[in-house]
Design goal:
- By secondary structure, this protein is of the alpha+beta class.
- Helices cover about 55% and strands about 20% of the residues.
- It folds into two domains: about 5-100, no CATH class; about 115-230, SH3 type barrels (Roll), CATH 2.30.30.
- It has helices spanning about 5-20, 20-25, 30-60, 60-70, 80-100, 100-115, 115-125, 180-190, 215-230; strands spanning about 130-135, 140-145, 155-165, 175-180, 200-205, 210-215.
- Strands 1, 2, 3, 4, 5 and 6 form a six-stranded antiparallel sheet that branches.
- Helix 2 (about 20-25) runs parallel beside helix 6 (about 100-115) and helix 3 packs across helix 5 (about 80-100).
Length: about 230
């Protein structure tokens, strides 16, 4: 077998690693050496499937299979097998992507290899709970996460804000804008049917984020009232 043909098998494995929803979000967190190793393993696996499929075709439809192979311009040994490997990898990946839920794949990747911020964002998105996001500028947003960021790729968080404010000189949060009453007016007036349809999304760059935490308004109010009574 000409050694340069092996590249097609490696390309097949790399294609699956970087294009398949099942693998890509987790593999994006791997270092380059680990990604190459994973691609080689997938290349070996898909190559094994190709050899089995080729054997079945030669036993069942040898004339048709050989006729298709004769169309190929190159007659190197195993070239037909290598081309089949690459085509099968592309076909299986694209068909599987149509059947796999992208958000579910992102969720699994975050659960397996996500950092702490990504885990909190996942919890907010999945359970529709609010998060409190503090920025370097002392701006503070409280809201619902609208979409899951792709692990270690997306550099932003998209939220539907409920309240915003800032941290004063004592680093205590002071709320200045309440969005919920505005949302209610739009829904009640029939402008939209759901809050999600409003274009009030806020996109926050992760490089500007100081901290992200779960937020419960009732607990926050009780905690503040307790502090005021003690002072």
């Amino acid at each position: 077998m000409p050694w340069n043909i092996i590249i097609l098998h490696l390309v097949a494995g790399y294609y699956i690693s970087t294009r398949s929803y099942y693998f890509k979000f987790k593999h994006q967190l791997l270092d380059r050496q680990r990604l190459i190793f994973e691609s080689v393993l997938l290349g070996v696996f898909i190559s094994s499937l190709t050899v089995i499929l080729k054997f079945i075709c030669l036993r069942t439809i040898p004339n048709i299979f050989n006729s298709i192979g004769s169309i190929l311009p190159y007659k190197y040994p195993f070239f037909r097998t290598s081309i089949m490997t690459l085509l099968i990898a592309i076909l299986v990946t694209e068909v599987a992507n149509l059947l796999i839920d992208k958000n579910k794949s992102i969720e699994e990747a975050i659960k397996n290899v996500g950092n702490e911020i990504e885990l909190i964002i996942l919890n907010s998105f999945k359970h529709r709970t609010m998060v409190l996001i503090s920025l370097k500028s002392d701006k503070v947003y409280i809201g619902w996460v609208k979409e899951l960021p792709i692990p270690s790729i997306s550099n932003h968080i998209r939220i539907i804000p409920a309240i915003s404010g800032f941290r004063n000189n004592s680093k205590e949060v002071e709320f200045t804008t309440h969005y919920l009453s505005v949302y209610a007016d739009f829904v009640n007036n029939g402008h939209v049917n759901r809050v999600q349809d409003l274009n009030f999304d806020v996109v926050i760059n992760l490089s500007e984020v100081v901290s992200v935490g779960n937020f419960d308004l009732e607990m926050y109010q009780k905690f503040n009232n307790s502090n005021k009574e003690n002072t």
